[in-house]
Amino acid sequence: MARVALVTGGTRGIGAAISIALKEAGYSPVATFSGNEEKANAFGKEHDIPVYKWDVGDYDACKEGIARVEADIGPVDVLVNNAGVTQDAMFHKMTPEQWSTVMGVNLTGFFNMIHPVWPGMRERGFGRIVNISSINGQKGQMGQANYAAAKAGAIGLTKSLAQEGAAKGITVNVVAPGYIGTEMVRAVPQEVLDKRILPYIPVGRLGEPEEIARCVVFLAADEAGFITGSTFTANGGQYMA
Ligand code: CAA
Asked: In terms of pTM, does the model score above 0.85?
């Protein structure tokens, strides 16, 4: 039977490309979303991928949602923590709410999703967790103290869980995308994008969501059991960690 692969934020942007690529690779993907129900349902219908709505920032909602997925479809063998938000502001203008919203979704959200699936993966002796971090968690970014802190935190979380999961057949890895042509990047002021970001990408363009999905499919494979605790960068050469 196809392995169930749960992708958070899996109906839009990079997450949508990941859900589709996992399906093409023979998985049974499930995509979560938290926003526009109509668009998410349309995505699910178009690609024949089940979609579920919950907020990854809410631990009880994650626990309950995962239990529903497992009852409806089967145990989650692959978890892709992709859901993330930005609330960019220079630090002197950043509000406590902007800090806690981003930490709550982008870092605590990873805990909230991993914690409920971890015992089952340990029992079954198999699991693949791929945490989507960011180039900005590796190098820091003006205007993103909250986002960069959460994305760097995801790398520490990954390295710790990689050690805990290794003896149980669970791998935990990071994919760190650079600037990808999604709504999130298009929200960056055009002048900043043109003058401060694009010129520093040696490949000379934004990345495509499918280029990140390729990395996830690679790390999710049964054959990828020796790769754990790694940070897989895909950033067009903008930052070489
Ligand atoms: N790199 C270098 N300098 C930057 C910069 C950047 N990315 N962003 C802003 N600056 C500079 C501005 O050019 C400006 O400099 P000058 O005063 O010399 O003109 C100064 O910083 C202040 O900028 P603003 O006047 O624009 O200040 P603001 O308060 O209006 O807005 C901001 C600040 C919200 C940070 C806005 O500039 C911004 O959104 N910047 C982009 C931040 C960014 O890169 N976000 C990534 C989003 S995509 C993502 O997160 C996905 C991923 O994983 C990669």
From this structure: yes
